[in-house]
Give the backbone structure.
Amino acid sequence: MKKRSDDVDPFMPPPEYGQSLGGLSLNLLSTDLSRATQFHTDVLEVHVKYVDSDLLVAEGFGTSWMVHADHTYDQHPLLGLVGTAPTRGVGMEIRVHGCDPDFVAERAVAHGFEVFDGPRDQPDHGLREVHIQDHDGYMWVADVPLLGEE
């Protein structure tokens, strides 16, 4: 159920936005869209292209993605699965390439998010990376190439 009031215009009509997407797209669900917005702006420091009570559209590091509030999936069978899960996205890493893991780790701790692993060098990957779990349980991995490994 949409909660955005009808007097607030989305940044573009939803059908137009949907048809503008290509390649691989992420659409995450969130129990608390304001907390998701804080994670995106204060930890990842990505550009929030649009946010209202239903939807966050983020852009950064050469891509964009969406985060929908749970209530927008009230008629979707997926909400029944994630609504009972202790965490979301188990087994999936959302990698943000080119995002400095040391700075992200500092910001995550400062804003109350869990640093799950790192930051540390991963020579087998050729990357320095940090794993951070957001409030919904998604695992975000910020990484940069190791010096001399580019």
User: Anything to note?
Assistant: The radius of gyration is 16 Å. The first helix runs from residue 14 to 20. Residues 14-145 form a domain with the 2,3-Dihydroxybiphenyl 1,2-Dioxygenase; domain 1 fold (CATH 3.10.180.10). DSSP finds four helices and eight strands in the chain.
